[in-house]
Specification:
Layout lengths: L3 E5 L2 H16 L4 E5 L6 H10 L7 E2 L7 H18 L4 E5 L3 H12 L3 E5 L11 H12 L2 E4 L2 H9 L7 E3 L3 H16 L2 H4 L7 E5 L3 H4 L2 H18 L2 E5 L2 H9 L9 E4 L4 H10 L2 E4 L2 H9 L4 E3 L13 E3 L4 H12 L14 H17 L1
Parallel strand pairs: 1-2, 1-4, 2-3, 4-5, 5-6, 6-7, 8-9, 8-11, 9-10, 11-12, 12-13
Helix pairs in contact: 1-7, 1-15, 3-4, 4-5, 7-12, 10-14
């Protein structure tokens, strides 16, 4: 096993860890690339790996989907078996998934140093499984790479050792800046769906609280229809498998005159859809960040966010269609301010600086 092991389990983790892997490769620092298969699609993940020019995955773990406890336990068991004979010295995890927590727990119990990328985010909503994963992973990590001063502040208030915390910026900025020009050249998504800049809105909706209840999902569709009528434009909706299954299960109609449902799109197409949308509506944490970086008006259909840096141009509306419409009207009048609070595009360099020092220190 190499000195550094990077463990990911979902496509957002893959995208956000790509700049770190690129920087490690640039400096010729070996690492093992482990995918838990928490969420894995050969087509979608394969596209990301090709588009982002990533190395092949070294180890596929057979985790798959399932209940939170079973999934987290299976991740722990899988990486523990992998590391018993040849443990890495450093395990790098990202974000807030069950893979993040499972790999971090296994590493900590095996006395392997844990580095948490995107540490310190807080929604202050313990009903979100991701919030539990974030808090616990931060507690057992040796190095906490926080994306902003705000996230560092949360950790300090929780009593974390300041020496463990390194403010790096968010790797999502690195990934976006590195690939937006490629996306502009390669993506054909606007032509494919006959879309014109600023003449459509982009929607993503997949969170359990929005799609795992018939009542909530119907309420969500009603909000989207109301927004489409207010905007006078179609809403383009790359459908998440979870949302698609829920719509089919409850036979919920999505009116095509207001909402164009399209298959899931890859990372490059996502960037182009976001960049050219007049408005972005989402319940995704990563999309909140990307829309903010691209300076797009944003409505978040959740009741909380762990990305407070975006709130100068991001309004949390839940599924309240009146609030959503009022927000759009405010945007039309000029409300919204976009800055560079999420970073300068050099987060991966700062992260790898620390990892490189840790590797060299361990060799002495």
């Amino acid at each position: 096993m190499k000195n550094i092991a990077i463990v990911i389990g979902t496509r957002p983790e893959l995208i956000k860890m790509a700049p770190v892997m690129h920087e490690l490769m640039k400096r010729k620092i070996p690492f093992s690339f482990i995918h838990s298969n928490q969420h894995y699609s050969k087509e979608l993940d394969g596209n990301i790996i090709r588009n982002l020019d990533l190395p092949s995955i070294d180890e596929h773990l057979d985790v798959g989907s399932g209940l939170h406890g079973a999934q987290t336990g299976k991740i722990m068991e899988s990486v523990e078996h992998l590391w018993i004979k040849h443990p890495p010295r450093i395990v790098v995890v990202h974000g807030d998934t069950n893979t993040t927590l499972g790999a971090a727990l296994a590493a900590a119990k095996m006395h392997i140093k844990v580095c948490h990328v995107e540490a310190g985010l807080r929604s202050f909503d313990n009903a979100m499984p991701e919030e539990i994963n974030r808090i616990l992973t931060d507690r057992i990590s040796n190095v906490l790479f926080t994306p902003t001063e705000t996230s560092k502040g949360y950790l300090l208030k929780e009593g974390m050792d300041q020496e463990k915390i390194v403010v790096t910026g968010n790797t999502v900025v690195d990934a976006l800046l590195q690939h937006i020009e490629i996306a502009r050249k390669k993506s054909a998504v606007l032509r494919t769906y006959t879309l014109e800049k600023n003449h459509y809105a982009c929607v993503t909706m997949h969170r359990p609280e929005n799609v795992d209840s018939k009542k909530q999902l119907e309420k969500g569709i009603e909000l989207l229809v109301a927004l489409s009528k207010e905007l006078g434009y179609l809403l383009v909706f790359p459908i998440h498998p979870r949302t698609q299954q829920a719509l089919e299960k409850w036979q919920i109609h999505v009116p095509a005159q207001y909402i164009t449902v399209i298959p899931p799109v890859d990372y490059l197409d996502t960037l182009i859809l976001l960049e050219n949308a007049v408005l972005v509506i989402t319940d995704s944490g990563g999309i909140q960040e990307e829309a903010y970086i691209l300076k797009r008006p944003l409505i978040t259909i959740r009741t909380s966010t762990e990305r407070p840096e975006t709130l100068s141009a991001n309004v949390i509306v839940g599924l309240d269609k009146k609030k959503a419409i009022a927000t759009w009207r405010a945007y039309k009048k000029g409300w919204g301010k976009w800055g560079n609070e999420l970073g300068d595009g050099h987060a991966a360099e700062k992260i790898v600086d620390v990892l490189e020092r840790m590797v060299k220190k361990g060799k002495r």
